Amino acid sequence: DTHDPTSLRTPIVAVLGHVDHGKTSLLDKIRGSAVIEGEAGAITQHIGATAVPLDVVSSIAGELVDPDDFDLPGLLFIDTPGHHSFTTLRSRGGALADIAILVVDVNDGFQPQTLEALDILRRSETPFIVAANKIDTVPGWNENENSPINDTYESQSDRVTSRLDEKLYEIIGNLSDEGFSADLYWRVQNFQRNVGVVPVSAMTGEGVPDLLAVMMGLSQRYMKEEMEIDVAGPGVGTVLEVKEEKGFGKTIDIVLYDGTIRADDTIVVGGQNDPIVTEVRALLQPRPLAEIRTESRFEKVDEVSAAAGIKVAAPELGDAMAGAPVRVVRDRDLDDVIDEVEAELADIAVDTEEQGVVVKADTLGSLEAMADALEDAEVPIVRAEVGDVAPRDVSVASTAEDPKQQVILGFNVDVLSDADRRAGVDDVTIFTDEVIYQLIEEYEEYVEEIER
Ligand code: GTP
Ligand code: MG
Asked: 24: Cβ below 6 Å to ligand 1?
């Protein structure tokens, strides 16, 4: 609306959880339910995200969501693959996600990545709810497609509900062990103080109406002020991934959380060395599923406004880093924008010592999380960088005086083969893992070995 430049943007919802606990299935179910409700066209698929407008939320949630009670435009869900580090989901001053859904398989319970997700939600102070998923797998379960949880509970036998309750209370107990006071969502009065647990099935859609209603209510109640943005202003976002794309070269997938980005904008992006100043060549959105067989997977768009996920093609993006800031220049002073990007990067920069271990991570956010965890473990860092383990990292590690520090800790990264070879020669030990605390445990065990 051109008369009122400030408006409420869509809250960004991160969907987190251990591998295979059902994050993607849950989003697929929401998309599928929209198809059933005849609202398929209203859902837009973004790069790495799915936008669900309020009227669709309301038609899926039925009587649980009255659209008149809300003035936020809907929800933007970001799916984070289990193998990928969701620590990328950072923005200036903290978490990129406004709220989060932590998906936990009721059978599998808490797993390493569940704990890791909780740790990051805690550190970033992101409000979240727990989706206790796969309730349909409770033996004897009576399926009620897409039904609210209360209705489906009423149609289950006592044996089935008590079995499910047992599993739910186990999750509530696990949350409490981690320092979160939690309860079944219908018992929670204050979602800022208590974590609500929503039983769902991404397979049958049971509990999905409740999940959407709780997310919508939570954002409306506690986040409305933070959602007020100048939509037409120059865009601000975070790089989710740097990717080679046929016909476009290196591209960046970004989540825009403020303002607008246009196909003719100049942008400043956080890079491995200096901030990258470049001109947008194309803004790319995934084509609707029906058109995917046409010549290209992407559709060029002229502009997008926050909140949105979009692929940006531009020259010079080779050095861009996942987790780094992106800012549109538009009619602002270029140097000011560069300063802002530098200031943001400096905020994330890890303090290094004269002596310590070498740390490599896949994104800026995960590097930051690694540094925090190593600080807690009182392990000094000599060098911390985004990227795969390369021969020069081995050189640095090999100069450590203390054998405990002739070590490289790689989080979610590969070890280049010449680095691996070199490490063998130089007596440098490389640890890699996809879970931060496991990586640190491995290192601590190694240190104990040495000291023994
Ligand atoms: P990653 O992206 O690999 O981390 O996994 P994910 O969390 O996205 O899990 P995904 O949605 O791919 O689901 C993993 C498996 O669990 C698939 O085989 C799903 O069909 C199954 N699944 C997910 N949700 C449910 C559910 O509610 N009930 C049942 N029975 N199966 C489910
Ligand atoms: Mg997935």
From this structure: yes
432 in ligand 1 pocket by Cβ < 6 Å?
no
Average pLDDT, stretch 138-165?
A: 96
Would the pLDDT of 59 be above 80? Answer: yes
Q: What is the pTM of this model?
A: 0.86
Structure tokens at 348: 């994330």
User: What is the reported pLDDT for 81?
Assistant: 66
pLDDT in tens, 354-369: 999 999 998 888 888 8
Structure confidence at residue 82 (pLDDT): 57
- In tens, the pLDDT along 393-445 reads 999 999 999 999 999 999 999 999 999 999 999 999 999 998 888 899 999 99
pLDDT tens digits along 90-100: 666 567 889 99
Cα–Cα dist 70/41, whole Å: 21
**Nearest protein CA to atom 15 of ligand 1, as residue:** 20
Q: Could you count the other beta carbons within 10 Å of the beta carbon of residue 64?
A: 19
Residue located nearest, by CA, to atom 13 of ligand 1: 22
Residues of the binding site for GTP: 17-24, 79-83, 133-136
Average model confidence (pLDDT) for the chain?
Answer: 89
Measured from the CB, is residue 137 less than 6 Å from ligand 1? Answer: yes
Give CB contacts under 8 A, 24+ apart, made by 369-377: 369/87, 369/120, 369/123, 369/436, 370/409, 370/411, 370/436, 370/439, 372/123, 373/436, 373/437, 373/440, 374/409, 374/440, 377/440, 377/444
**51 or 281, which is more confident:** 281
Beta-carbon contacts of 405 under 8 Å, excluding residues fewer than 6 positions away, are 355, 356, 357, 380, 382, 397
> Which tokens go with 16?
């987190």
Sole residue written with tokens 């008149």: 68
Task: Retrieve residue 396's tokens.
Answer: 């640095």
Instruction: Give me the pLDDT at residue 1, please.
Output: 41
